[in-house]
Design goal:
single chain, alpha/beta, Rossmann fold
Length: 395
């Protein structure tokens, strides 16, 4: 008996199905006039077309395109269905909260050793750092002479929907840091790292050292057009911001899809070929569940990020301000650990790496992993967890 579908993702489903349909339709239409091999974003399609061309089957070339796109579309549907009926569910209980304000909590993972306060992004759930057994950076560190704390921003309520980045940094984050106490290592992941730079500059009395894990800084690197394209979406999403006081999760997912329009379809086709009982399949489901379990972004913050960060590249230009004061990584005088994953498509290494040059004496590591794989993937312990623990131990 086939298991029932129990998930909504990938979100927004209509967008990803439409992108796949458009690529297939465009390939079929254009194949009628193709005479030579062409560059493709999909290696499987390109290989099938090269095979037909090399065989001299000019008359069957459109047929080869038709058959390959049909196979690709069928694999996509099969992969989505396999994901949506997979039985895995996350059942890790949250550790106790030692501080709370609004919807935000400071979770204590225990452990003997230096306190490390982890600050995640505002647009994804904090539990990516505590994803599943064997894939929890925080639980691993707690058993390795480190005492991790996790700031779970929570769902933006009525008050948070009016928050600016200043409210988050100079308000909620600083109060969480005060609750943790002086001498804490501040570790920011993704957008949380960008916020952590500002917080460490404002409150050096509370921060012993700073870790920046795939934290974007130069938003126009390596290709300004990608960031500007995201910024140009602001007028299109403004009605949703005005109506909801937030940027809804599905619209956030659309913006992420702009970074890699074909990536979601490709990974679901790959998932269709995996053994559902394998560790690899379970990790895929865990990560996709997290990606589809997003958090809306307060409207003022969405406007600041799209216009200021992506459009004007304010952080890299020295023009980003918190509470009226410029955020300057060069002003920091504390040990710093910068991780710039080499295969990161969300925060390209060219965007994260400049922080290592701006902060005197920073330690730079470039894990051979992607944005999420570095934190929770199969090789995360080797490429990030252990180097980070060794750096903390050497402070």
């Amino acid at each position: 008996m086939t298991a029932p579908l129990q998930r909504r993702g990938p979100r927004p489903l209509l967008l990803h199905l439409t992108l796949a349909m458009l690529r297939s339709s465009a390939s079929r239409a254009a194949s009628l006039n193709w005479k030579h091999a062409w560059p493709s974003s999909n290696e499987a399609i390109a290989a099938a077309l090269r095979e037909a061309l090399e065989a001299g089957a000019a008359g069957t070339f459109p047929g080869a395109v038709w058959q390959e796109t049909l196979a690709q579309d069928a694999a996509l549907i099969e992969g989505i269905a396999a994901y949506r009926r997979h039985p895995w569910t996350r059942d890790l209980p949250d550790p106790p909260a030692v501080w709370q304000e609004g919807g935000s909590r400071l979770l204590d993972y225990g452990g003997e050793g230096p306190l490390v306060l982890f600050v995640p992004s505002l647009v994804n759930r904090a539990y990516v750092l505590d994803l599943a057994p064997g894939h929890s950076m925080l639980r691993w560190l707690a058993g390795q002479s480190v005492h991790p704390l996790l700031l779970d921003w929570g769902w933006p309520g009525e008050a948070e929907r009016r928050f600016t980045l200043t409210d988050y940094v100079a308000g909620r984050l600083e109060r969480a840091m005060a609750a943790a106490g002086p001498g804490t290592v501040l570790a920011g992941y993704c957008m949380g790292g960008t916020l952590a730079v500002a917080a460490a500059q404002r409150r050096p009395d509370l921060v012993r050292a700073l870790a920046l894990l795939a934290a974007p800084w130069d938003f126009h690197a390596p290709d300004p057009s990608v960031a500007i394209q995201a910024a140009e979406m602001l007028p299109l999403v403004e009605p949703a911001l005005a109506f909801n006081d937030t940027l809804p999760v599905d619209l956030l997912q659309v913006l992420f899809a702009l970074l890699d329009p074909w990536g979601v379809a490709d990974k679901y086709r790959s998932f269709a070929r995996q053994d559902p009982a394998s560790d690899r399949a379970r990790l895929f489901v865990a990560l996709e569940d997290w990606l589809n379990d997003g958090v809306p972004l307060a409207a003022p913050v969405a406007r600041e990020c799209l216009a200021g960060w992506y459009g004007a590249n304010a952080p890299a230009r020295g023009e980003w301000r918190i509470a009226g004061l410029p955020v300057d990584p060069g002003a920091l005088r504390l040990p710093c650990f910068v991780a710039a994953p080499a295969r990161d498509r969300i925060v390209p290494p060219e965007s994260a790496r400049p922080l290592a040059g701006l902060i005197a004496g920073a330690t730079l590591v470039e894990p051979a992993a992607g944005h999420i794989g570095m934190a929770a993937g199969h090789g995360a312990e080797r490429v990030l967890w252990r180097p980070f623990r060794e750096w903390v131990a050497g402070l």
